[in-house]
Amino acid sequence: MSQVHISTHPLVQHKLALLRDRRTDPKMFRELLREIAVLIAYEATDDLATEEVTVMTPMGQASGRRLRERVGLVPILRAGLGMVEGFWNMMPNIEVWHIGLFRDEQTLEPVEYYNRLPVSPTVDVCLVLDPMLATGGSAVAAVDILKNWGAKRIKFAGVIAAPEGVQHLTTAHLDVPLYLAAVDERLNDVGYIVPGLGDAGDRLFGTG
Ligand code: PRP
Ligand code: URA
């Protein structure tokens, strides 16, 4: 199975075009990102383990299945926060552990500024959330942090990637599958994805 999953779902593609549009204001941007996250969550969780359960319906006994694995969300601050609500819509009781990273504007290297992970892993599967995978530095750093913490199973859920970011993350972490809505043409000379959508954090929080 391929390590890189790019959604071809018509709803994802429809919402992605609206998300990219420079006329989309922060309120609409937040709504669209949440909605795309719901759809990416559906795809990124398609191999979670389940176990059999029995429930009583008003008509009698029915067998069904429930999630067996404990899932944790790890949004990369800030823009990853925009995907949390969508994943929560699908899995309301899962834990959320934040990692704060920003890119140094000169070197494009990630700088860690927030990490309050507990002493040892409390979940079976970590879903790293960040809508933008540009050089891949932030995602690789987040996965490094989680692996050093002891996380065994890690997935990356994003929205738009540059080919350079996909290459970086898949090479650094062969065991981490990627779930994306698009892989764009390239990075420009200041590390922005082209055509991308601009600065995701600024568009999400209205700080641009
Ligand atoms: C953006 C984005 C990713 C990172 C991607 O964050 O949300 O975290 O850049 O770039 P990379 O793949 O080259 O590391 P940014 O550093 O702008 O911080 P912000 O989300 O707080 O705006
Ligand atoms: N971060 C963003 O928000 N956008 C890009 O295009 C690259 C990194």
What can you tell me about this protein's structure?
- The chain is an alpha/beta fold and 208 residues long.
- Helix content is 33%, strand content 30%.
- The chain is built from 6 helices and 15 strands.
- It has helices at 10-20, 26-44, 81-90, 137-149, 163-172, 200-205, and strands at 4-6, 50-57, 60-67, 71-77, 95-96, 99-103, 110-115, 125-129, 132-133, 153-157, 160-161, 178-180, 182-183, 186-187, 193-194.
- Strands 1, 4, 5, 6, 7, 8, 10 and 12 form an 8-stranded mixed sheet that branches. Strands 9-11-13 form a 3-stranded parallel sheet. Strands 2-3 form a two-stranded antiparallel ribbon.
- A hairpin with a 6-residue loop joins strand 6 and strand 7 (110-115).
- Helix 1 (10-20) runs antiparallel to helix 2 (26-44).
- The longest helix has 19 residues, at 26-44.
- The mean pLDDT is 97.
- The structure holds 1-O-pyrophosphono-5-O-phosphono-alpha-D-ribofuranose (PRP) and uracil (URA).
- Uracil (URA) binds at residues 79, 132, 134, 192-193, 196, 199-201.
Helix-strand layout with pairing:
Elements: E1 4-6, H1 10-20, H2 26-44, E2 50-57, E3 60-67, E4 71-77, H3 81-90, E5 95-96, E6 99-103, E7 110-115, E8 125-129, E9 132-133, H4 137-149, E10 153-157, E11 160-161, H5 163-172, E12 178-180, E13 182-183, E14 186-187, E15 193-194, H6 200-205
Parallel strand pairs: 1-12, 4-5, 4-6, 4-8, 8-10, 9-11, 10-12, 11-13
Antiparallel strand pairs: 2-3, 6-7, 14-15
Helix pairs in contact: 1-2, 2-3
Bound molecules: 1-O-pyrophosphono-5-O-phosphono-alpha-D-ribofuranose (PRP) and uracil.
The site of 1-O-pyrophosphono-5-O-phosphono-alpha-D-ribofuranose has 23 residues, from β4, β6, β9, α4 and α6.
